[in-house]
Design goal:
The complex is a heterodimer of chains A (113) and B (112). Chain A has 113 residues and is mainly β. Helix content of chain A is 0%, strand content 49%. Classes of the chains: A mainly beta (113), B mainly beta (112).
Chain lengths: 113, 112
């Protein structure tokens, strides 16, 4: 069974630029999560989708971050404009539902200069 | 105060040692407790899952939850170099089981 796919794996941008990350969850998984993991910290949930609807986006900085999950499958996370403090690994995870095990992708490592 | 506190280490032990990893938490609503293992440049993978209080054993790994003290532990017996990784505790409440609150992770190195 294929795991959660993410691209790109690495991205370097300058502050005030925009960037987008892509996630393809495990086939059949209804729930998709985006986490931010700053170096030396645990992952922090940014947004949770159930199919193509948002369940929780309370920790998403909505002035600069946006996410969508069209057709309830793939998802994109966008940052515009980026700040230095956005440097982190962005992890995508998926699960069969909210009560099930979350499977994580390898993450996208973002560096903002 | 963070909802979940975890000693970041790093922790270095010789091969074969017993390792004890711990987390404390402040939110009494947490009922689901997990330990994830994260290798360098990889995403976290679920290692152990416990509901409410008690112990759970899986091979060389034992997870303990003490809800009265708001304290959880992971024990690794006969540690191996392949156990070298960052261990993250995570927890959630029944009102939103999908929203995992993670500790900051403990980096473990097992030396041959």
């Amino acid at each position: 069974e294929a795991g959660v796919a993410q691209s790109p794996r690495y991205k370097i941008i300058e502050k005030r630029q925009s960037v987008a990350f892509w996630c393809n969850p495990i086939s059949g998984h209804a729930t998709l999560y985006w986490y931010q993991q700053i170096l030396g910290q645990g992952p922090k949930l940014l947004i949770q989708f159930q199919n193509n609807g948002v369940v929780d986006d309370s920790q998403l900085p909505k002035d600069r971050f946006s996410a969508e999950r069209l057709k309830g499958v793939d998802s994109t996370l966008k940052i515009q404009p980026a700040k230095l403090e956005d440097s982190a690994v962005y992890l995508c995870a998926s699960s069969l539902g909210g009560n099930y095990e979350q499977f994580f992708g390898p993450g996208t490592r973002l560096t903002v200069l | 105060q963070k909802e979940v506190e975890q000693d970041p280490g790093p922790l270095s032990v010789p091969e074969g040692a017993i390792v004890s990893l711990n987390c404390t938490y402040s939110n009494s609503a947490f009922q689901y407790f997990m330990w994830y293992r994260q290798y360098s440049r990889k995403g976290p993978e679920l290692l152990m899952y416990t509901y409410s209080s008690g112990n759970k054993e899986d091979g060389r790994f034992t997870a303990q939850v003490d809800k009265s003290s708001k304290y959880i532990s992971l024990f690794i017996r006969d540690s191996q170099p392949s156990d070298s990784a960052t261990y993250l505790c995570a927890m959630s409440s029944p009102s939103n089981t999908g929203k995992l609150i993670f500790g900051q992770g403990t980096t473990l190195q097992v030396k041959p």
